[in-house]
Amino acid sequence: MTLMVTVASVRPVPAHGQTAVDSTLSCSEDLRLMRARIEQNYGGFRLEVKGTKLKRFESAYAALMVRAERTLGAECYFVLKDLIAWFDDPHLFLYETVRLDTAETTRRARSVATLAMDEAAVRAYYVSHARGLDPLEGIWYDGPLRFAVVPDPDGSKGKFVAVLLNSDSTIWHPGAIRARFVRRGAGRYDVELWERNFALHHREAVIHKNVLLRLSPGMWGKEFPVAPSDRGLLDPLDAHRPTLIVRNGSVIVSIPSHDGPNKAVLDSLVRLHEHDLMNAERLIVDLRGNEGGGSGMSASLMPYIASAHQRPSLLKQDEAMILSSDDQISYARSSFGPETSGFVKSLIARMQAHPGEFVQLADPSDPPDPPAKDSVIIGPKRVGVLIDRGTVSASEVLVLEALRSERVTVFGEPTAGALDYQSTSIVRISPNERRWFLGYPTITRSLALPSGGMRGRGIAPTVRLDLARIPDAVAYVEHELRRKSNT
């Protein structure tokens, strides 16, 4: 059936017609520089790309170079993305930025594609076609921005556009097409997204827990239509923020992001609901789609999760190492506190003394940390943690800690598996390249890797679920925890 909206004008922005201001290098040179930065900085290359695997990498790289030599402009994204994807590490990523001058921004603003959109009509469409909607169709928000995602007016199957319902600048107007999506699997999409300056960015988008769209980087929340079972899982103003709801003796905490600013929000929720947490029969922590951030973000919730007697850790924790390079030394200077501190002075001195080698992150002369004391156990007897393949990085640290607790059961799918190489930095691949940057993990967990590693496998749940077949995963976990309490 056809969406009942009218097309005022559809004048496509030249999707790949970027100008010289986007990049000053050829795609083949960008590919070469990206590989060089990976080799210099990424511990996973040094430890794992050897022997037969190195031969496979060289073969893949040669094929990518052939593609790169015939690729121009923004299309280089797909070549560089495939180089990054070869390593299958969530902490290794391609970062794209486009700087446009005022004249180019103005030119693109005049040629933006538009689609007449009446919000009442589109809401009626979503309701009347509820059974046949793609999970992407609906009204989404990104902070103050709101979009209606509808089928592409060109009629192509599996293609969608995000139409602005409100504006975030004087040059973007309601009705403008801000993004284009192509479905490439269940809940997965390739995206062309136009930023505020009309620069084109590429993204991969995945829907988690029905209402969270991860655009990596970026996150949208679904406003409408939302099933009653999914309400309360997202903050209605900022999809990154945690939420807490209380129902039927259960406290349900949904944490989409471990990013630093969200710590204060979670801390506030925990303080506000201290009585509910202390007296709850069950606690459910929903980490589906969590984008990671800082592991300390969820510290205030840990007393309600941990147990006095803990199970052994599932992940071997060796001394963390850092691969010495110019980029890594710059990272150490900016990320570990003032350079006048003893730790940073020692680390930088050791890195400078061993270029191209792994250096122990902790100062070998420092005494070991004292053993942790048993936690004070408060709150619910049963705790459920809900995870999926989008549970990544710092949120995986929370999963590992939860699995050590005797009152926790972890439900869902294996996590992303991003803790072998940790703590990301973003670097230029060249002073002359303005568009493409490399994001890479700075810390190597163990020099024994890939032995004992988790990449490609993730953290397995205690109870494995096919989340695509469970309409209300939170209710399922709630039922299972209640059943356990009665046995």
Verbal overview:
The chain is α+β, with helices and mostly antiparallel strands and 487 residues long. Among the domains are: 103-224, no CATH class; 228-315 and 371-419 and 454-485, 2-enoyl-CoA Hydratase, Chain A, domain 1, CATH 3.90.226; 321-360, no CATH class. The protein is built from twelve helices and 19 strands. It has helices at residues 27-41, 43-48, 51-69, 76-85, 102-110, 119-128, 262-272, 274-279, 326-335, 342-353, 394-403, 473-485; strands at 93-96, 138-142, 145-151, 159-164, 177-185, 188-194, 200-208, 212-214, 219-224, 243-247, 250-254, 282-286, 321-323, 358-360, 382-387, 408-412, 421-428, 436-444, 463-464. It has an eight-stranded antiparallel β-barrel with strand order 2-3-4-5-6-7-8-9. Strand 6 and strand 7 form a beta hairpin. The longest helix has 19 residues, at 51-69. The protein is globular and about 60 Å long. Mean pLDDT is 90; it is low at 1-21.
Instruction: Find the CATH superfamily of the domain at 228-315 and 371-419 and 454-485.
Output: 2-enoyl-CoA Hydratase, Chain A, domain 1
Q: Beta-strand level of the residues, as a percent range?
A: 15-25%
Count helical runs.
12
CATH topology of the domain at 228-315 and 371-419 and 454-485: 2-enoyl-CoA Hydratase, Chain A, domain 1
| Structural shape | globular
Radius of gyration: 24 Å
* Main sheet makeup: 8 strands, antiparallel, barrel
